[in-house]
Amino acid sequence: MKNFKPVQDENKKVKHVRFLGLCKSCGLCISKCPAKALRFSDDKVGYYGLPAIEIDIDKCTACGMCERSCPEQAISVIDKRQAQPAKSKIKKSVKKKK
Ligand code: SF4
Ligand code: SF4
After folding, report:
1. What separation in Å is there between the alpha carbon of 98 and the centre of ligand 1?
2. Is the overall model pTM greater than 0.85, yes or no?
3. Pair 23, 55: CB distance under 8 Å
4. Is 1 within a domain?
5. 64 lies in some domain
6. Which residues in the chain belong to E strands, given as ranges?
7. What are 10-54's pLDDT values in tens digits?
8. How many structural domains are present in the chain?
9. Which of these, 14, 32, 54, 92, has the minimum number of CB atoms within 10 Å of its CB?
10. Which protein residue's CA is at the shortest distance from atom 7 of ligand 2?
């Protein structure tokens, strides 16, 4: 069995990870993406020999719709903007307790 490593793209706002070993290229994520950020690759293939999914990361709004709609759990979306305030809140509460 060929070992497909996850493929990821990211910018300041979002990290988008695709697990090519799980993706069956059904296209559901493409059709559900409200930002039209996803597409089939012209040259990369997944485990099943079908086109891999690619992303235009700067179009992605980190809504998570692709992750929720994928029947194979082949996508992970991390909204970095939500992660940062949560960390800063923890730091503030630690400072207050001192
Ligand atoms: S919905 Fe999941 S399995 Fe279908 S193409 Fe997208 S990533 Fe692949
Ligand atoms: S997180 Fe939302 S905007 Fe980004 S690729 Fe997935 S469905 Fe599209």
Report:
1. 48
2. no
3. no
4. no
5. yes
6. 7-10, 14-18, 38-45, 51-55, 75-79
7. 999 999 999 999 999 999 999 999 999 999 999 988 888 899 999
8. 1
9. 92
10. 33
